[in-house]
Design a protein that fits this description.
It contains 26 helices and 28 strands. It is an alpha+beta fold. It folds into 6 domains: about 40 residues; about 140 residues, Sandwich (Immunoglobulin-like); about 160 residues, no CATH class; about 160 residues, Histidine kinase-like ATPase, C-terminal domain (Heat Shock Protein 90, 2-Layer Sandwich); about 140 residues, Response regulator (Rossmann fold, 3-Layer(aba) Sandwich); about 100 residues, Arc Repressor Mutant, subunit A. The strands form 8 sheets. It has a 6-stranded antiparallel beta sheet, with no helix packed on it. Strand 24, helix 19 and strand 25 form a beta-alpha-beta unit. Helix 9 runs antiparallel to helix 10. The longest helix has about 70 residues. The two termini are about 60 Å apart.
Length: about 950
């Protein structure tokens, strides 16, 4: 509300300021003149009546260039016109211009304009007092300091008041044109000349800007698209644009000659044209070379390069302007005609999209041929038809430039639009394929999970006590089913790991015992071919690694079974297992026949792996899965054939525990032999016996699972071992825990994704509940949620099981929790003889590390060496040691608070400090560490 009022206040202030400014502006406007035209006095301004003064032109060619203006008689001059082509001449060309006095009609300021074509230098003379005097100079081959008015326009400003006061005036012009340019003379009032000059300058520089922009676009597109043909077109058009600018008088030569007088500077126009033609030749050559079959085009290129080379050399070496002019124009005509021949020779090869270029480039080059042909003919034949291109060189070249560049840009735009459409279609296709692939992956994962669950169900059901029978046929059938289900479970576990692209759930494994267990399972299978296993190893007896049980067993078993399948009967399988450089190296060798060597080579051919396995090749499945599984542990596989045998080298780098603690929980065997050993624990349990004694009582287990099949199987397994209760939803499980009529579970097994009340919410409720916070919770996690394990344990869960799990894995988890409880009970009974309330520990004793802990009793409890070391290392105070020992007895926070005479909140605060100092995440972990 306060923010809204603030915004309204700011808006009102701004509106007030705007209103005041508007009122002030309107009131101040009255003080200024609204219509200045009313206040101005009418003056008689001299506006020229004619846009061009009528003049008469005559000319004289001084071959010697020795005569001065005063030495020339009027009789020397021949009648001419304001527009004529003198052709090539030696020496200098004199022009005599007569015009009437027009001060009364057109004013006295004029500009003598000498046309747009190239003139090296033009000197203007006026007659005054019967004498000829130098008046001004213009030109394009002189420095700007020598120009009367530095400009790209060839003109000299005239002030008629400086002329003799007569009814008519005469001006003489001495000029030199290196390349025999046509003459166009006019006398224009300065008012109209300035307007004309402004329009022409604007048009010229606009055209220059457009040309340069188009060239840069072509070059940029060529570089961006990595297409050298576009780069060549951009370079050719750049030099063509420079030629057009040069012919218009504002090009590089004009700027060049602002620095120094260069005798051959005008010939730079020839060089620009040659360079442009060279790039066009390279374009045609690149197109033709894409189809080497067009050999008939090679003579045309030979003609082009010959004409080009001769023209370039002669243009820069021959002194005669006439000869250079003819060679240049003839070579341009020859080269351009050959371009048209190239089009005709390769027309059928042109791509459909190139038709646009052909339709424009053919007229462009045809125009260039006609233009240069007429430039030659106009010198020798003063016909009007040959002069149609006179004075408009820049227009012709600009037209050619547009005919060449515009279709190329249009073609690029078309191509990019097609590419954009194709990219969009490809993107849509990829999205659809990704969606389909995701659906297939999800379906694969779902089916794999179901199959894995069913496989585990079969495997667990076959081991139930009810299935144990003395009948040998039943045992054989049971063994076949158990092996098939176990193998299916292994494959499905591997596929689940590969499909989800997640690290497998690892267990601590005593490597040597585990490997021997795998060999014991393989021995009956290998005995059918009378293959004996000879094992040698350099593995320490206490080496513990972290690996996935199914993957590791599959790697060991399938690599050995693959060798056994391709070997003959009655042979030995030599197996060597060693641990070097933090790597497990399994080397296995067996003799094989030459035929089996071919089979092995066929199996090792990885180029076949992209094809599906045929029914006859299903024996390779285990071998391929081994090579895939090894990569999970950054391993390598290598096969060698030596003599009459074959050797497999398997290298893996799983995590390992160098010095396992005495109480480290490890796996030593696999499948029906698997159990977990604690070095100082009782012998391994048998699933058919009472393995969960809780200090003489049968434990209570609450099992929450929505899958009825898994629920029934768990009940079948655990009902003879415990008081078993089941719940199908999270809400049902929570209501069971809250009902005081129900027995308090000794362990709570819960599916993390159970409906109605999620596992995360159940964990939160249990940790906040006084009655349920001490119940160990085991969560059942799918493989996709395996990464949540550490977070759940940190939040208070006792442990997690990754689904699908075996009966042995479930027994191991329960056995661990109940064993800890039993050990804690025995330790407390032997250490605490009586429990009485004692005095509070004074504050000054906080932080002392005694060798005994004063519990609320008449005496004290002596600490073991391990407990003393743990407490001293963690820096526990006396109060924290008391609470740690009481938690190890299984006391709840409420009970501890009553014994110590403090509030439950204070106990909770101490618990947080204890967990942090001891680096534990739950009460069960603390019990295990302190016991």
């Amino acid at each position: 509300m306060r923010s809204t009022n603030k915004k309204k206040s700011i808006f009102s202030l701004l509106l007030t300021i705007f209103t005041l400014i508007s009122v002030n502006t309107i009131s101040a406007q009255a003080r200024y003149i609204q219509n200045p035209m009313k206040e101005m006095k009418v003056e008689d301004l001299r506006v020229p009546e004619h846009k061009e003064i009528p003049i008469t032109v005559s000319y004289y060619n001084d071959d010697t260039a020795a005569l001065q203006c005063s030495q020339l008689s009027r009789s020397y001059f021949h009648p001419g016109s304001t527009k004529f082509n003198p052709g090539f001449y030696k020496g200098v060309l004199w022009l005599e211009i007569d015009f009437p006095d027009t001060q009364s009609t057109d004013g006295k300021y004029y500009n003598l304009y000498l046309g747009s074509e190239h003139i090296d230098v033009a000197d203007v003379f006026i007659q005054k007092d019967g004498q000829w005097h130098f008046y001004g100079r213009a030109g394009r081959s002189i420095k700007k300091e020598q120009m009367t008015t530095p400009s790209w326009e060839l003109h000299v400003p005239i002030d008629e008041s400086e002329l003799e006061k007569k009814e008519s005036h005469t001006i003489r012009v001495r000029m030199m044109a290196y390349i025999g340019a046509p003459v166009r003379v006019s006398l224009i009032p300065r008012r109209y000349f300035d307007q004309q000059h402004t329009r022409q300058s604007t048009a010229n520089f606009s055209i220059i800007g457009i040309n340069i922009t188009l060239c840069l676009i072509l070059l940029a597109l060529g570089i961006f698209l990595h297409d050298y043909i576009y780069i060549l077109i951009g370079a050719a058009c750049t030099f063509l644009a420079l030629t057009s600018i040069q012919l218009n008088g504002v090009g590089p030569v004009y700027l060049w000659n602002q620095i120094a007088i260069l005798p051959h500077a005008p010939r730079f126009t020839y060089f620009l044209t040659h360079t442009s033609l060279l790039f066009f030749t390279m374009i045609f050559l690149s197109v033709v070379l894409q189809n080497p079959a067009q050999k008939k085009s090679y003579p045309i290129f030979a003609t082009i390069f010959t004409a080009f080379g001769m023209s370039l050399i002669f243009s820069m070496t021959i002194q005669s302007p006439k000869v250079v002019f003819l060679i240049f124009n003839v070579s341009v005509i020859i080269i351009t005609i050959n371009y048209l021949f190239l089009w005709a020779a390769n027309f059928r090869l042109a791509h459909e999209e190139h038709s646009l270029i052909i339709n424009f480039w053919v007229p462009a080059f045809s125009t260039m041929i006609v233009f240069h042909l007429f430039k030659i003919l106009r010198v020798y034949f003063p016909s009007t038809i040959f002069q149609i291109f006179d004075y408009d060189d820049y227009i012709v070249y600009n037209l050619i430039f547009l005919l060449i560049t515009v279709p190329v840009l249009c073609m690029i735009i078309r191509r990019q639009r097609r590419r954009t459409r194709k990219m969009k279609n490809d993107l849509d296709t990829v999205k659809k394929e990704k969606t389909a692939l995701t659906e297939e992956k999800n379906l694969f994962a779902a089916v794999t999970r179901q199959l894995l669950g069913l496989s585990n169900t079969v495997l667990n059901a076959i081991r139930l006590p009810q299935m144990q029978s003395g009948d040998s046929s039943v045992k054989n059938a049971q063994g076949i089913i158990e092996r098939a289900a176990g193998q299916a479970t292994d494959y499905l576990n591997a596929l689940t790991i590969f499909a989800n692209n997640r690290p497998p759930h690892d267990s601590s494994i005593l490597l040597l015992d585990f490997f021997k267990s795998c060999l014991r399972i393989l021995t009956p299978l290998l005995s059918r071919k009378n293959i004996k296993i000879e094992l040698s190893h350099t593995i320490p007896d206490n080496l513990v690694i972290r690996a996935n049980l199914s993957l590791l067993e599959m790697i060991f078993s399938n690599s050995l079974m693959t060798l056994a399948r391709i070997s003959g009967n009655d042979t030995n399988l030599l197996v060597n297992l060693k641990f070097e450089d933090e790597s497990i190296i399994l080397k296995s060798h067996i003799k094989i026949s030459p035929d089996n060597k071919e089979q092995l080579a066929f199996m090792l051919d990885e180029s076949r792996y992209s094809s599906p396995l045929s029914p006859d090749e299903t024996n390779e499945l285990g071998f391929r899965l081994v090579k895939k599984a090894i990569k999970v542990y950054n391993g390598t596989f290598k096969a060698e054939t030596t003599g009459d045998g074959c050797t497999f080298h398997v290298t893996m780098k799983p995590d390992y525990i160098d010095n396992p603690e005495k109480n480290t929980l490890v796996v030593t065997r696999f499948k029906n032999e698997m159990h977990q050993d604690i070095n100082d624990s009782p012998p391994p349990y048998a699933p058919t016996k009472q393995i969960f004694p809780m200090n003489g009582k049968i434990p209570t287990i609450l099992f929450a699972e929505s899958n009825t099949t898994a629920q029934r199987l768990a009940a079948e397994i655990l009902k003879d071992q415990s008081h078993f209760f089941a719940a199908s939803t999270g809400t049902e499980a929570w209501n069971f825990l809250q009902d005081p009529k129900n027995p308090k579970p000794d362990v709570f097994i819960c599916n993390y994704n159970i409906p109605f009340l999620s596992g995360r919410e159940i964990l939160r409720k249990c940790t906040e509940s006084e009655t349920a916070k001490d119940i160990p919770i085991i969560f059942l996690l799918p493989t996709s949620d395996a990464g949540r394990r550490n977070d759940l344990i940190r939040r208070g869960a006792a442990d997690c099981l990754i689904k699908p799990y075996t009966t042995e894995e479930l027994f191991n988890k329960l056995y661990t929790i109940f064993s800890i409880s039993r050990k804690i009970h025995n330790a407390v009974v032997s250490q605490i003889t009586q429990t009485l309330r004692g005095p509070e520990i004074p504050p000054e004793q906080e932080g002392i590390m005694p060798a005994q802990v004063q519990l609320p009793s008449a005496g004290s409890v002596a600490l073991t060496t391990k407990q003393t070391s743990i407490f001293n290392t963690a820096g526990l105070s006396s109060r924290e040691q008391q609470i740690a020992m009481l938690i190890s007895q299984g006391k709840s926070d409420k009970e501890i608070a009553e014994l110590l005479g403090i509030s439950a909140g204070t106990v909770t605060t101490h618990n947080k400090k204890l967990f942090k100092k001891l680096n534990v995440h739950s009460r069960v972990e603390l019990m295990n560490k302190v016991r």
